[in-house]
Amino acid sequence: MAIQDNPSHNDYLRRMTFAAFLKSGSLASEEETYHSDGDHHNHGVDKQNSLSTNSDSQRPSNASSASSDSSSPIYPLSPWNQTYYPNNENTTSFTSASQSPWNQTCSPYHKSPWVYQTRNSDFEDDPDNGLIGTVVRQEGHVYSLAASRDLLFTGSDSKNIRVWKDLKDYSGFKSTSGFVKAIVITGDNRVFTGHQDGKIRVWRGSKKNPERYSRVGSLPTLKEFLTKSVNPRNYVEARRRRNVVKIRHFDAVSCMSLNEDLGLLYSGSWDKTLKVWRLSDSKCLESIEAHDDAVNTVAAGFDDLVFTGSADGTLKVWKREVQGKETKHVLVQVLMKQENAVTALAVNLTDGVVYCGSSDGTVNFWERQKYLTHKGTIHGHRMAVLCLTSAGSLLLSGGADKNICVWRRNDGGSHTCLSVLMDHDGPVKCLTAVEEAEDDGDNHGEKGDRRWIVYSGSLDKSVKVWRVTDYA
């Protein structure tokens, strides 16, 4: 057995057994304590993380990251079953002594900290819908993901960005600091990552070696930052009575969104600002004091509109307009103002619908008419809605209640819940969907028969892959 060849592990068992003998306690209870300490270690103990933990209590969109991990039970994994065992409450029966090389948490056969596991299919009667597989990470939480063609990019609190192709470990790259809270991908194969340390880093794959990604810059560029820092008028007062250059975020970059038609990137931050970047030269065009509290979510929409949601409970609409010789984003409408934080946004560009998730578990939506008009509220989650994504006529919502609800927008504007995906064992933090390529001879391209591959990242340290259809 591989675990018997590890002397340090045997020493650990002997020490714990002797300690258990002295304290008249069971080895199982000591093991449970050991695992619990490990979870706390994964959260980090540096000053910056402790500060962000305090901030999370005021920002419901991120609060789950500070509380979910320590309370969730620890379940072993097997290569024959990619999911946890949510129905088994007896966690003390699984100790290190009972782990085998088939348990992925200590398997010596995997070089990557991620393991792809296929599912024992429960959907053989309906192959077009259900869970396809799971990618499980051994430590940390999945905070962000993005999909581009056949590649999946995942970000976590370990500062790593992993790249997957056909759900196999394809590549990866690592930043120097700040775990990854947002990822967007441009059409020219550039990857923008937003980090806890307030920086936006830019990466690109090599043309000769597509598996190799290297950092090609950051936002703002060093040249622009040095140029702006010379003029005192380019500084703004930040917290702790210090001034910073306004073209750089001085708190966590919580969200990003692309408008490739206009060649713009939008970034929102816990520093309460919305910044507008030009993709062609990475220049910061605007820095907008958008909200009274942290900006949790941003979404580029239709008609050159941009939507921002904040922990201050407001949902604001910004429009790009020409003012003299300049083009600026101006506030045109406040769609919502409530006590509960706005935690997620999604836009259906085809039908002109804006969806807004809140910390109370509701999803409100507006439709484009002469003005944006509120059309209703969707109730499907018992806890905060943490992420939203739109896929054709479908809306997918992930929540702190560990569930993913799949909604279909009907012709009359009402929404029907098609299914609830419940295999995650922790809050669902991020979602994205891509349309599945048609196989030869398939007729899934017709309206109502489109198939989608959905990726969901969770604070249970896993990424799950689903297939959903409009008719499910």
From TrEMBL:
Region annotation (Disordered) maps to: 31-74
Q: Which spans does this entry mark as compositional bias, Low complexity?
A: 54-73
The family database entries (Pfam families) matched by this protein are listed as: WD40
InterPro entries, A to Z: JINGUBANG-like, WD40/YVTN_repeat-like_dom_sf, WD40_PAC1, WD40_repeat_dom_sf, WD40_rpt
Q: Which domain of life is it from?
A: Eukaryota
Write the record's keywords in alphabetical order, separated by commas: Repeat, WD repeat
- Does Repeat count among this protein's keywords? yes
Basic and acidic residues bias (residue ranges): 32-46
Q: Where are the WD repeats?
A: 246-287, 288-319, 335-367
Q: Which SUPFAM superfamilies match?
A: WD40 repeat-like (SSF50978)
- Gene3D superfamilies in the record, alphabetically? YVTN repeat-like/Quinoprotein amine dehydrogenase
Specify the protein name: Myosin heavy chain kinase C-like
